[in-house]
Design brief:
With about 180 residues, this protein is α/β, with parallel strands linked by helices. The protein is built from six helices and nine strands; from the N terminus they run βαββαββααββαββα.
Length: about 180
């Protein structure tokens, strides 16, 4: 896991106004559902579906509803899994079976059944991370360089939240409409 740390001067509130740190923009880890790396893709699909189908409250947003946190049995954070990762697992299962890319009805579902038994540990990709004290610019650079939809946010190596492009966008939007 790659971790970027902020500089002490980024945290000095007495200096000229600067962008906020990652800590102020991240989505807390408590808003995300968790799964274990030994669970199957079928299990994860069910958890993801349940999270997405759960009614949102008046103050609730879509934050944390499309991404699951993956941990091993020792409670170490391994990465993230999203719907697109499940689809990728189906395609990978198809390729592993050396199946032709036929467009016959049922081909996708047949491979989805195969992929459903794969463990999440075989699908999850390691997630780059950034320390909570890092600047928004450090986070943006890391996200752009690695084509990330989410960036793990850590404090002393422990996962405390996730940062998304839309969280960074809010900083840009605040420039356009400062009193909002």
């Amino acid at each position: 896991m790659t971790t970027v740390r902020g500089k002490p001067e980024d945290l000095d509130a007495t200096r000229a106004p600067r962008g906020r740190t990652v800590r102020a923009m991240m989505v807390p880890v408590s808003l995300y559902a968790r799964v274990r790396s030994d669970q199957t893709v079928r299990d994860v699909a069910e958890v993801l579906l349940n999270v997405q189908m759960h009614p949102m409250g008046d103050d609730d947003t879509d934050r944390g509803r499309r991404t699951l946190l993956v941990f091993d049995r020792a409670d170490r954070f391994l990465g993230l899994i999203r719907a697109q990762d499940i689809v990728r697992a189906v395609v990978t299962a198809s390729r592993a079976a050396a199946a032709p890319h036929a467009s016959t009805a049922g081909t996708f579902l047949a491979h989805a059944r195969t992929a459903a038994g794969i463990t999440v540990g075989d699908v999850v990709q390691p997630a780059p991370a950034i320390e909570v004290s890092a600047s928004a610019m450090q986070a943006a650079e890391l996200m752009v360089a690695n084509h990330l939809s989410h960036l793990a946010v850590t404090r002393e190596g422990k996962l405390v939240g996730l940062l998304r492009p839309e969280d960074l966008y809010q900083e840009v939007a605040a420039l356009a409409v400062p009193d909002r």
